[in-house]
Amino acid sequence: MKNIFIFLFLTFSLGIFSQIEDPVKWSTSVKKVSDTEFILISEATIEKGWHLYSQDVPDDGPIPTTFTYDVSKGGFSLDGNTIEEEGHTIDDPIFGMRIKFFENSAVFKQKIKTTSDASTINGVVEFMVCDDSKCLAPTEIDLVFNIPEKVNNTFGNQNEMLSPVKWKTSIEKISKNEYDLIINAELMEDWHLYSQYTEDGGALPIIITKADKNKGYQLVGKAIESATVKKFSEIFKVEETFFEKKGVLKQRIKLNKELSSVTLNLTGQVCKEACIQIDENFTFSLNGEKVNSVAKSKIDNAVTNSLLYGINTDDLKFSTIKCDSEVSSSSNQIQQGGKTLWSIFGLGFLGGLLALLTPCVFPMIPLTVSFFTKKNGQNKSGGVSKALLYGFFIFAVYIILSIPFHLLDSVNPDILNEISTNIWLNIIFFVIFVFFAFSFFGYYELTLPASWTNKTTQGESSGGIIGIFFMALTLAIVSFSCTGPILGSLLAGSLTADGGAWQLTAGMAGFGVSLGLPFALFAMFPNMMNALPKSGGWLNTTKVILGFLELALAFKFLSNADLVAHWNLLKIEPFLALWIVIFAGLALFLLGKLKFPHDSPIKKLSFPRIAGGVLVIAFVIYLASGFMVNKETKTYTPLTLLSGLAPPVGYSFLYPNDCPNNLDCFKDLKTGIEYAKKVNKPIILDFTGYACVNCRKMEEHVWPDAKIDNYLRNEYVLISLYVDDKKALPKEEQILVNRINGGTRRLDNYGHKWANFQTQFFKTNSQPYYVLLNSDGTKILNQAVGYTPDKEGYAQFLECGLEVFKTSNKE
Question: Gene3D superfamilies under this entry (predicted)?
Answer without folding.
Answer: Glutaredoxin, Thiol:disulfide interchange protein DsbD, N-terminal domain
